Write the structure tokens for this entry.
Amino acid sequence: MQGTVYNYYSKPTQFLKFGETNWINYLIAFQNPPATTAPTAIFGISGQELTAGSNLQLTDLSLQSPTSWSWTITPTDGVTFGSGTTANSPNPVVNLANAGYYSINLHVANAFGTDDSLSTYAVKVVEPTLDLPGELSATINSNNVDLDWGGDVMFTDDNFDNYSPFVLSFGSWKQVDVDKSQTYGITNYTWPNSGYTGSFITFDGTKTTPAITGWVAPSGTQVLACFDAATPPNNDWLISAKVKVKAGDVLSFYGCSLTDSYGMERIQVGISTSGTETANFTMITPNPYVEVPKTWTAYQFDLSAYAGQDIYFCVHVVSNDAWALFFDDFHVGAPNSGGRLNRKHYHSC
């Protein structure tokens, strides 16, 4: 067997006795050999999914002993370097304050040249899960009133205005992304997490770049969006926390397709009395789906069959290569008296 031998280092001119500390210098030289070509940028990260406000450790693994480093993290909002490190440290610590997807680029250089390594959407940052109080009960104990809210997390009406814009995790809602596809954006408009892989995103058309002219929502300016899968069809689930249904209660919300030029968006609405797995839900919309018009439309579902029971409800998006679907003002309780948008469409199921 023949091969090629490369002799990079000369043999030491002095032999060292066991325990002599000069051996450390030879070991360091072996681990960090002097560069002979331009570097190859490589890096590692301490995690791919973090909670907002957590630290991320970046580690330089580049070849050919770089002598300078420059880290770029996008989006830049909420990104700070900590533990005495900077964007020019080889192994910085980064705090990511905002939810969303972050891309990381490392630029390295040595005397022979430079190189870059970009990892797109390398880290997903989610909002901390804050459980809402469960059912509140009160017990009178002498002169005291004992309050207990240790029950299950319960659904409360939601217009999505209290969440950060363009985040992928919000409140007590459960999401199930079955299609696992990247989603469409909107041509000539940008926002954090545009083209995300997932199910739903909080969306405010007044905060895109540029702002969307004529943007209107049933209440406030922020809604919930489900952009269509780039690899259709959509198979995305939005599942509520537990709801205790009272006599006369309805489930209502607004829906709107971005456009009908590629067909209208498609949804199914379901109820579960047993849990939040997708298999637990029975659909209460007409088979196979309901198409959502391009104007804000109010949907209302009678829950009288579930009076006195605990339920969960879901919206299952099954659109097929349309564009984007918006929701707002989820409500369980007495029927709403009228729409805020002078709506043209009203569906009662």
Summary: The helical segments are 22-31. The first strand starts at residue 43 and ends at 45. The chain has one helix and 23 strands. Residues 3-18, 339-349 have pLDDT under 50 and may be disordered.
